Amino acid sequence: DGSFIEPLDALFLLFPNQGRRVVGDNVCFVSKPFVLPYVDELFPVETETFSPAHAADGVCVLTMMCLIVFFGIILTHNLWNKLGSNFAAVTPAHKKWYVVANLSKSLLLAILCIGTTRFWVVTYNSLFLDKFLNLELKRCSLVYAATDVVALFLVPKLPRSTIIHHVVTAFLCLGCTGINLSQHGWEGILGVGKMVMLYGLFSSISFPVNAYLALRVVYPKKQWLYTLCNLSFWLYILCCAINWSAHGYWLLWLFSHGEFSVYAFLYCF
Fold first, then answer.
1. Most buried one in 30, 39, 189, 205, CB count within 10 A?
2. Would you say 198 and 127 are in contact if contact means Cβ atoms under 8 Å apart?
């Protein structure tokens, strides 16, 4: 109809089918050359809560997104280093990778948040109506995780706290891909999976923070940087307040209904 493709639609163009089976009807079509008859044996059996097809989809999508982000960061780094005098002057040189990694993360999250109205519909339905999209929401979270995974390999001298954050983010997002989030309820591992998705949603909304962390290194004295700093600060505070309030309410709900489980304990820990 001549309209633009929204970013969430683009994810389905990359990974189009609905994940009904792993063998014979690949969840992610790019994995077709690598799918063998015994792939189903690599994952636990399907239950009401766990979907091996979605778990396989998560592995494929994260792998492909990591490759896209990996080569995108390298290309951007090399071109910017040749064409941008401010970027070329950044010292020490390893900070350039930090800049490009943060900027790429901010750009990808901005595309998801600003480039589509559906992101906000997803956020509202998830937070207030307990209507979680299954594959679509998981794939968005893996876009977030892919930037962290690639940073582990490309950005030198990352602080230990950052490394731990990136590793935990990747494992949580990948682990949640197998959970059937379309079920109603907030208890057990289902509730943990939903809270991880909510945490990711609000972390995505604060994408200007990553842009500021990157651009302050390249343009430290630009006037517009102060505006970006203030915007990032207050947006981050707002996202944290809503995010932590939602988590606090969830924990109170679990305690009041006698549903606090080992999964919730490990997640909070």
1. 205
2. yes
